[in-house]
Amino acid sequence: MKFSFIHNNSKLANNLVVFIFMSTIMLWDFKFYSLHFKYLILALIPFLIFEIYKDSKKIKYIYYSILIFILLFFHLIFSELKYIEKFNNIYDIKILKILYFSYISLCVLIFFPIIENNKKKFINFFIPIFLISTLISLFYFEYDAPYFCGGIPDYFNFFEYYKNNNGETIAVNKGEFKLSFNHFLYEENSHLGMVISPIIIYITFYLLNLENKFKFILYLISFFIFFVLSSTTLLLGLIINLLILIFIVILKKKISGIYKLSFLLIFTLSIFTTSSECTQRISSLINLYYKDILIGKFLTSSKKIENKNAQETNNKNSNGTLVSSGENLSAEVNAHAIKVLINSIKNKPFGYGFDNYYIAYNDYLLEPQNEFFWRVEGYNKGDGGNNFIKLFSEFGIFSLIIFIIIILYIFDKKIKFENKVFFVPFIITQFIRGAGYFNAGFSIILLMILIDYINTNYLEKKI
After folding, report:
1. DSSP code at position 412
2. Are 235 and 315 in the same domain?
3. pLDDT tens, position by position, 414-445
């Protein structure tokens, strides 16, 4: 197949396409005035027109994206029959979101070969931007939250006090404060953690060598900053992804490739297990899942809220009973999302429709027999805290098709291992902690995995 735009004409155009994809995925949380970088993929419109103009065979990609729009639209209609008679503004927005997803699918269909063949360039565009933005963030230094999973403890007590969100000055015990800072590209450390795991793994496996000492140093500095800006998302994502990739390497019987991955796994595990914040969050999750999800005893043993003001405030939007677990807030949010998922499977096994997780969320709260943690109302109402729960709640049993393809992709020997190293950690990490389809490049990477799998297994000529 000819890729005239890439092979025959402009190297600059190729670089621009890679840069736009990189910015859309890696810089997704950054907003410059009214320009939100997660929407930079819209800048590919002239490139799409040029590609289709130069190669008329690629018009079939438009038909594929239209088919995707039709499937998502009719699934939404099927999920919300009440909207057939009345289209309101909210529904119009949903249609626009489906249209945007279809546009993303068209971009991925046409430009997938560029990203597949330029993964190193993708990373080498990101690293300098990240390092420069880090210097700017340090120049305009602002305290980050002093307590988070991972990070570097302030054993030398550089910071004896910090100001909380209310502006109050709080004394900090030696070694209790984490040395960190607010990075202006990311509102939270976890937002960086959603996208950085595949970059760390890919650099470790393919790029971290002494052939280019300058790049080697830049990579090490970047690694140091990544772990300074640590989070549960980053560390847990790394651990799970590394375990998967090591298992694949063992199956491929390429033991030589296991050493770098194993070293990174041991290093990450050492940080995770020695951080009280990390272990506390995991123990809270296990405690809530065990009591509430597995054996169902949590609801009978949980404490009813005695604060009448809290009850009155929260009951305005719900009929259920307010409860308190005494566990970590993040654990409560995740446990609550699991309960919403179970409830959605019972009520709508075919799903609530594209980007309708908030309806599943509200349905759970409105059922009188349900109990929920009073602190979590409103948290992750649109995304469920991770994209596994969101995807399953919105597409029900249809989402099993996607999950099965991802599993097959991971263990398919015909898929390039380099592609797995780069693409799979994005998806796995955001199944742990995600922010919807259009954030952190989730829809882009998911579509690339689907295309790569279909190309490899079912099509002689790549789509």
Report:
1. -
2. no
3. 999 999 999 999 999 999 888 889 999 999 99
